[in-house]
Amino acid sequence: MVHTKKIIKETFWEIPEEKPYNKITVQDIVNRCQVNRNTFYYHFQDIPTLMIDSIEDWMADVIQKYGTLESPADCLTYMAQECMKRKSSPINVYLWEAC
């Protein structure tokens, strides 16, 4: 089950590369990761919950890797590299949140 939840999260972050966040549907996500809608709803209440859960996981990873904050530059470099992997996703999500 943990594996399925991880796949849903990873798949979610692929989609904003192609379309704005506010146009993403649960059907887009389940079709791409080939899971049932009920499986999605077993793990997440809705798409915003999925996004928040994903961001919290990412930030926990940042804290685990750079939690000592001996070098804030390392932390910022890591975060910038992660954002560059998905150039459109952070922008699409930010624009949706800003509206």
UniProtKB/TrEMBL annotation:
PROSITE patterns (alphabetical): HTH_TETR_2
DNA-binding region: 25-44
HTH tetR-type domain boundaries: 2-62
Stored InterPro entries: Homeodomain-like_sf, HTH-type_Tx_Regulator, HTH_TetR
Signal peptide location: none
Keywords per UniProt: DNA-binding
Top-level lineage group: Bacteria
PANTHER family registered for this protein in UniProt: ACREF/ENVCD OPERON REPRESSOR-RELATED (PTHR43479), TETR-FAMILY TRANSCRIPTIONAL REGULATOR (PTHR43479:SF7)
Protein name, entry field: TetR family transcriptional regulator
Native source organism of the sequence: Blautia aquisgranensis
Lineage, highest ranks first: Bacteria, Bacillati, Bacillota, Clostridia, Lachnospirales
